[in-house]
Amino acid sequence: MKGNKGKILVVDDYANWRIFLEYVLRSEGHQVVSVSSSSEAEQKLLGESFDVVILDVRLVDEERYNVQGMALLQRAKSLSPSPGAIILTGYHDPAYEEHALRDYGADAYFQKVPNGEQPIVDALKRKVAELVTRSRSL
Q1: Which domain holds residue 122?
Q2: 31-35 and 52-56 as β-strands: parallel, antiparallel, unpaired?
Q3: How far apart are CA 123 and CA 110, in angstroms?
Q4: Distance CA 86, CA 124 (A)
Q5: What is the pLDDT of residues 4-30, one digit of tens each?
Q6: What is the dihedral of CA 18, 23, 26, 28, to 10 degrees?
Q7: Residue 112's domain is classified under what CATH number?
Q8: Stated pTM of the model
């Protein structure tokens, strides 16, 4: 892909958030693959390369209830060469945010907001573009 258009993996167990993120990211010209579970995400990461992984902190997985997104983030970093990582959560905790950024290598941490408020959407778009650019320069 040319410029700052990248390949993005979206991992969220809520269909509404996956659809919303797909729409936002595709409207920016990115190629988007979305999945609903950590096991699906791992399969995608094994077979494809992504510039950015966007994942939910809490993933309800039918096989392994309430899988932590941080565990998936660690797995993503070990499977794919340096993908950017953005964490989304509906359960904001400043201490957890610091932990995700400092200890797990997340590049950004956004709180899910009702109705996709524009400042969050704009910040997400900017961060994705930044991470795609970084990925393409490696």
Answers
A1: 7-137
A2: unpaired
A3: 9
A4: 9
A5: 799 999 999 889 999 999 999 999 999
A6: -120
A7: 3.40.50.2300
A8: 0.86
